[in-house]
C-alpha cells in the first residue's frame, strides 16, 4: 500500500510542492527511449547549439576557448569535434571561469568527487539540471525493476546520518532506503543486514559494484540464503565479469550495471536485455576517442568524452571523463535506439605502464588474474615505479605458495622479468573514504 501511495501520491505531491519537473521529464524519457535515431540526433543538435551559445555568452572560460569559433555553425553533431576538449585540470585550476553568470549562486547545486586520483573536484549544476538527472536515473532504475516507491537496500559507504523528522518522513514515504555501510563489512554487519532484510523486505539492491560483490561472497560464506531481490543495480565503479557471476549466483537475480559520474550525471545504463549500456543520449553526447583525437571504431577502446546538454550553471562541453570504454557494433533487441557501450574498460588513471611506455588496463589485468589463479579472493596492483609492482592479495581457499609464484610470473609475463614484484597478504582490501575500491593504482608520472 505504501509503495502505491509513494508512486501515485507522495512523489507527485513532492514535484508540485517544489515546482519541479522530475516526473514530467520521466514521462518524456519513457517515450524518447524508443525514438528513431534521426529524431534523437535532431534534439541533441538543437540542445548542443543552445548550450554552446549559452556557454560562450555567459562564461569566461568559453568566451576565451571559443573566441576563434565565433562564427562556428554546428550543422551536424560531427561539428562538435571542432570544439576544444576540457580536462579535469582545467576545471580544478579555473573553476570560477566555468560558472555561468546567468545562474545565480543560490540556484547552483554543488557536487564533489574525489575521482580515481583522490584529488577533489568541485562542480556545480543548476536545479533544473538536477531534476532532469534525477528523471534519467529513475528511468534506468525502472529497467532494473526499481520503480518509484520500491523499498531499496543501499550498499553504500558513509550512509547519511539520521536527520530530523522531515528527513525521516521523506525517507519513509519517498526514498524508502535501508543501508549497509560498506566501510564496515564484516560478519556482524552482514548478519545484521540480513536480519534487516527479513524485517524490512526491500525489493531491490543498489550500490557500489564491488561492495555488492563482497556482500554476496560474505552471504554465501555465512550461509545466508534468503536475500532474494527482484532487481540489483550496480554503479559507481566497474563491475567485473567474475563479480557479476558471483552476485547473480548468490542472489538469484540479474545485475543491471549503470555508468555515470558526478560531473555529468548518468552516462549509460543496461536495459533488461543486459547486452551493453544504453547511452543517456537525451541528456549527454558521448564520444569515444583515440589518443590522436579521432573517433574510436566500434569494438575499439577509446577515451570517454562527454558533453552535458543540460547543465547551464557550469557548462561542460567535450569534457574528458578520464575513463576508457568500448562502443558496441550492434544494437539491442529491447527496441531502445540509443547507442550501446559494450563495456567500460577502466579509469585512465588506473592504467599501468610498461618500461617502453605501453599502457596496460590495470582493472582488466586484475580481472584476468583473479579468474586464472586459484585462491585469490581479492587483489590490488599498485605500481610504485616502472620497475616495482606492489600486489596486495587477500588469500582465499586454495591459496598457496604456488598461487604466489603464478601471480608473480603473471606480472613478469606482462611487465618483464626485470620488474620487482612485491606480494603483500592482507585480511581485506580497504575502501577509500567514498566507500569505493581501487584495484589498480599507478604512481608513475605520465608524460
Write a concise synopsis of the structure shown.
This protein has 447 residues and is of the alpha/beta class. The protein is built from 13 helices and 19 strands. The strands form 4 sheets. Strands 4-3-5-6-7-8-9-13-12-11-10 form an 11-stranded mixed beta sheet, with helices on both faces. It has a 4-stranded mixed beta sheet with strand order 18-17-16-19, with helices on one face.
In order across it, which strands form the biggest sheet?
Answer: 4-3-5-6-7-8-9-13-12-11-10
| Unreliable stretches covering 5 or more consecutive residues | none
- The chain-level mean pLDDT equals 88
Could you tell me the radius of gyration in angstroms? 23 Å
CATH H-level name of the largest domain... which superfamily? Answer: ANL, N-terminal domain
Task: Please describe the biggest sheet, giving its number of strands, its sense, and whether it closes into a barrel.
Answer: 11 strands, mixed
- Based on secondary structure, the structural category is alpha/beta
Oligomer: single chain
CATH class label of the largest domain: Alpha Beta
Q: Helix count, per DSSP?
A: 13
| Helicity, as a percent range | 25-40%
Report the sheet-strand fraction. Answer: 25-35%
Gross CATH architecture of the largest domain? 3-Layer(aba) Sandwich
Shape: globular
Question: How far is the N terminus from the C terminus?
Answer: 59 Å
User: Number of folding domains?
Assistant: 2
Q: Got a strand count? A: 19
Amino acid at each position: 500500500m505504501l509503495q502505491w501511495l509513494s508512486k501515485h501520491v507522495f512523489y507527485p505531491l513532492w514535484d508540485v510542492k517544489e515546482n519541479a519537473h522530475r516526473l514530467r521529464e520521466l514521462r518524456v524519457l519513457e517515450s524518447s527511449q524508443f525514438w528513431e535515431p534521426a529524431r534523437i540526433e535532431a534534439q541533441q543538435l538543437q540542445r548542443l547549439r543552445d548550450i554552446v551559445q549559452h556557454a560562450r555568452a555567459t562564461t569566461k572560460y568559453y568566451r576565451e576557448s571559443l573566441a576563434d569559433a565565433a562564427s562556428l555553425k554546428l550543422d551536424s553533431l560531427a561539428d562538435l569535434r571542432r570544439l576544444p576538449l576540457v580536462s579535469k585540470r582545467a576545471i580544478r585550476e579555473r573553476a570560477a571561469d566555468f560558472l555561468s553568470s546567468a545562474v545565480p549562486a543560490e540556484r547552483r547545486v554543488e557536487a564533489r568527487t574525489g575521482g580515481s586520483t583522490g584529488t577533489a573536484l568541485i562542480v556545480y549544476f543548476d536545479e533544473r539540471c538536477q531534476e532532469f538527472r534525477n528523471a534519467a536515473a529513475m528511468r534506468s532504475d525502472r529497467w532494473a525493476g526499481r520503480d518509484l516507491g520500491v523499498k531499496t537496500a543501499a550498499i553504500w559507504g558513509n550512509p547519511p546520518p539520521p536527520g530530523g523528522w522531515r528527513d525521516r518522513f521523506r525517507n519513509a514515504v519517498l526514498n524508502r532506503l535501508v543501508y549497509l555501510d560498506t566501510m564496515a563489512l564484516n560478519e556482524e554487519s552482514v548478519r545484521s543486514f540480513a536480519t534487516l532484510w527479513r524485517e524490512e523486505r526491500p525489493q531491490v539492491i543498489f550500490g557500489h559494484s564491488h561492495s555488492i560483490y563482497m556482500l554476496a561472497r560474505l552471504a554465501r560464506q555465512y550461509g545466508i540464503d534468503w536475500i532474494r531481490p527482484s532487481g540489483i543495480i550496480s554503479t559507481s565503479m566497474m563491475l567485473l565479469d567474475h563479480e557479476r557471476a558471483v552476485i547473480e549466483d548468490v542472489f538469484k537475480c540479474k545485475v543491471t550495471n549503470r555508468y555515470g559520474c558526478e560531473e555529468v550525471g548518468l552516462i549509460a545504463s543496461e536495459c533488461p536485455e543486459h547486452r551493453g549500456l544504453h547511452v543517456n543520449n537525451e541528456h549527454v553526447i558521448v564520444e569515444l576517442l583515440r589518443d590522436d583525437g579521432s573517433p574510436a571504431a566500434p569494438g575499439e577502446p577509446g577515451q570517454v568524452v562527454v558533453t552535458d546538454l543540460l547543465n547551464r550553471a557550469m557548462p561542460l562541453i567535450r569534457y574528458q571523463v578520464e575513463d576508457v570504454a568500448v562502443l558496441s557494433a550492434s544494437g539491442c533487441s529491447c527496441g531502445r535506439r540509443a547507442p550501446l557501450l559494450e563495456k567500460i574498460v577502466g579509469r585512465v588513471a588506473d592504467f599501468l605502464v610498461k618500461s617502453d611506455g605501453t599502457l596496460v588496463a590495470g582493472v582488466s589485468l586484475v580481472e584476468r588474474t583473479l579468474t586464472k589463479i586459484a585462491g585469490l579472493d581479492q587483489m590490488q596492483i599498485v605500481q610504485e615505479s616502472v620497475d616495482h609492482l606492489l600486489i596486495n592479495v587477500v588469500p582465499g581457499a586454495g591459496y598457496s605458495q604456488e598461487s604466489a609464484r603464478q601471480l608473480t610470473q603473471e606480472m613478469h609475463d606482462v611487465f618483464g622479468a626485470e620488474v620487482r614484484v612485491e606480494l603483500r597478504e592482507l585480511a581485506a582490501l580497504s575502501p577509500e573514504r567514498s566507500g569505493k575500491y581501487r584495484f589498480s593504482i599507478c604512481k608513475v608520472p605520465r608524460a
